[in-house]
Amino acid sequence: MRIVFMGTPEFAVPSLKLLLEQGYEVVAVVTQPDRPKGRKRVLTPSPVKEEALRHGLPVLQPERMRSEDAVAAVAALKPDLIVTAAYGQILPKGVLELPRLGCINVHGSLLPKYRGGAPIQRSIMNGERVTGVTIMYMAAGLDTGDMISRVEVPIEDDDTSGTMFEKLSVAGAKLLGATLPSIIDGTAGAVPQREEEATYAPNLTREDERIDWSKSAVQIHNQIRGLSPMAGAFTQLEGEVFKVWAASLASDKEKAGALPGEVLRADSDGIAVQTGEGVLLLKQIQPAGKKAMPASEWLKGARLNPGTVFGGEPA
Question: What is the distance between the alpha carbons of residues 24 and 275, in angstroms, rounded to a whole number?
Answer without folding.
Answer: 53
